[in-house]
Specification:
Radius of gyration: 27 Å
Strand order of the largest sheet: 8-7-6-13-12-11-10-9
CATH topology of the largest domain: TIM Barrel
Keywords: Cobalamin, Cobalt, Isomerase
Domain B12-binding: 2-135
CATH superfamily of the largest domain: D-Lysine 5,6-aminomutase alpha subunit
Structural class: alpha/beta
Protein name: Methionine synthase
GO molecular function: cobalamin binding; isomerase activity; metal ion binding
Number of helices: 20
Cofactor: adenosylcob(III)alamin
Length: 550
């Protein structure tokens, strides 16, 4: 039998929007609801309660606090007179009125509108409202399961000054807007934390300079307030196992973000060769899997950010998840970066993500769970800060179509300057408003015919790429996880990107073009799209000729 909630605005208060919204949320959580409307007299309310015997009664009053106090005195006496203490009473109103409601001793919970729908839903689900570190949860999967369908909110943060970053972590935690603070270290930290071969001229370049384990611990300590956000940090590009252990021990790294084919000579972020780094990255995935730490493999968007076409993005998404599963990862965080390249249209962007999701989630089983993480592409953010806020909101709205478990907010200011705590707080509040609106009901863009058609094209094209990689090494039992085969696929150009031109470890011959919002491999000399069948077949054929000659 469903539980019943009765709610009304009382006495001379005719404001009902908050009451009505609360009841809609309650209905979506499985309650029967009865809305008594505006300006309901206390005695009328009591009469209906005695007749209907609800489980919960919600009242709202948004007028002057002085008037409320006398109204609640009457209500309290009626509750006692008619023995209605067993009913769960809740109150909604302005902050001053909520203070008076708390002082009355009538209500088990009050809602002043500042805590958001997540707070309300937690109450309706019977979840204890978090007030300390244990209750908020210090595990990303626990936070996801507590909040969904509201995504866990993440933002990266790292200023050129360690002191400013430390103070910023404290401020962000106290504001209770972020579930996850991703510490963004400078390149010196990622590459030289252990060998100490810092280039001091580059201190603070790209993030916060962190020079000791104690400095990592202090960041964690300062975050133990507010909503006790999880902390995580980008992986190292050198001494990757030492870095992984240190992050686990100092900040309780919420999950690891590890590339498959990057952080090496391909992107200039480390001295490792491609094959060596793939092998080491796989071992790093396994290191985290053995400790039951979730893993995100940053792969597909590295290709997309270098203007690889959509089919490579989709194939790389699958390869990333496939290798994570192969290394024993149980909880996999799949990142889907929208707006890459920036000229991609919303329809074609969504089709690319849906194709990636279908392939990645085909790997799911009892031992491999996929959690979707959406974000905007940094390059899509205009330098004009007002336009950037519009882009932030627009990208978040589209991203919600994939029902993400985590939303990685990219600060609206990132194309202009590194995000300060105030920038982050403002950006997150913009995104939270978008999320709240989408979850109240939005169009199902995933069923658009153009989106569906492009999605199927990309799934087929990605399979051509994956089969092409397999054909490079038919003697290998599992080419898709073989470091030599994957590095060969990059060297030959099955996996390629225009920005890799001139890189000795890659092919770099691929050219791409955005046409009608979708990105394709393109032959500029003959002004035509190159199909994946043609492109991959040509590469395989040329490679087989080289083998025969050799």
């Amino acid at each position: 039998m469903k539980r019943l909630i009765i709610a009304a605005s009382i006495e001379n208060d005719v404001h009902v929007a908050g009451v009505y919204k609360f009841l809609r949320l309650a209905e979506s959580e499985g309650f029967d609801i009865q809305f008594l409307g505006p300006a309901t007299p206390i005695d009328k309310l009591i009469e209906i309660i005695r007749l209907k015997k609800p489980d919960i009664v919600g009242i709202s009053y948004r007028l002057t606090p002085d008037s409320l106090k006398s109204i609640l005195d009457v209500l309290k006496s009626r509750i006692k007179e008619y023995n209605l203490n067993e009913i769960r009473w809740i109150f909604g109103g302005t902050e001053p009125n909520c203070k008076i409601a708390k002082e009355s001793g009538i209500f088990e919970e009050v809602f002043d509108g500042t805590s958001g729908d997540e707070f309300t839903i937690s109450y309706l689900r019977g979840q204890k409202v978090a007030s300390n570190e244990v209750e908020y949860g210090q595990d990303i999967i626990e936070r996801i399961e507590r909040n969904y369908p509201y995504p866990v909110i993440r933002h990266h943060f790292g200023l050129p000054s360690y002191k400013d970053t430390l103070e910023g972590v404290k401020k962000i935690a106290e504001e209770k807007v972020l579930d996850v603070i991703s510490i963004a270290p400078d390149q010196n930290t990622q590459e030289h934390f252990f060998d100490k071969k810092y280039n001091t001229a580059l201190d603070g370049a790209g993030g916060v300079p962190i020079r000791s384990e104690e400095e990592f611990r202090r960041l964690y300590i300062e975050s133990r307030r507010g909503n006790y956000p999880l902390l995580r940090c980008y992986s190292g590009t050198n001494d990757v196992f030492k870095m992984a252990k240190m992050l686990k021990d100092t900040i309780n790294n919420a999950w690891a973000a590890i590339p498959l084919c990057w952080y090496n000579v391909l992107d200039g972020r480390g001295p490792r060769q491609v094959e060596e780094s793939i092998r080491e990255n796989q071992k790093l995935m396994k290191w985290h899997a053995d400790r039951n730490i979730p893993v995100e493999v940053n792969e597909a968007h590295h290709w997309g950010l270098r203007d690889a076409h959509d089919a490579i993005y989709v194939a790389a998404s699958y390869l990333a998840a496939y290798n994570a599963k192969k290394m024993g990862v149980k909880n996999y965080i799949a990142q889907f970066m929208f707006n890459v390249p920036p000229a991609t249209s919303p329809k074609m962007d969504l089709a690319k993500m849906l194709a990636s999701i279908e392939l990645v989630e085909s790997l799911q089983d009892d031992n491999f769970r996929v959690f979707r993480q959406a974000r905007a592409g940094l390059a899509s953010m205009p330098q004009d800060l007002f336009e950037a806020k519009g882009q932030l909101a627009s990208s978040a709205y589209l991203s919600m179509a994939i029902k993400p478990h985590i939303y990685h907010v990219v600060g609206f200011c990132e194309a202009h300057h590194a995000a300060t705590p105030d920038d982050i707080i403002e950006s997150v509040k913009i995104v939270k408003a978008v999320i709240k609106n989408t979850l109240s009901g939005m169009f199902d863009f995933t069923q658009d015919l153009d989106v569906l058609k492009r999605k199927e094209e990309l799934i087929n094209d990605a399979k051509v790429i994956l089969n092409g990689i397999r054909e490079l090494n038919t003697l290998c039992s599992d080419p898709l996880s073989d470091p030599h085969t994957l590095s060969l696929a990059i060297k030959l150009g099955i996996l390629d990107a225009p920005h890799l031109k001139g890189n000795k470890s890659a092919s770099g011959v691929l050219q791409t073009k955005v046409i009608n919002g979708a990105c394709y491999a393109f032959d500029y000399e003959n002004n035509r799209v190159i199909t994946e069948e043609e492109r991959v077949f040509s590469i395989i054929q040329n490679y087989q000729k080289l083998i025969i000659v050799a």
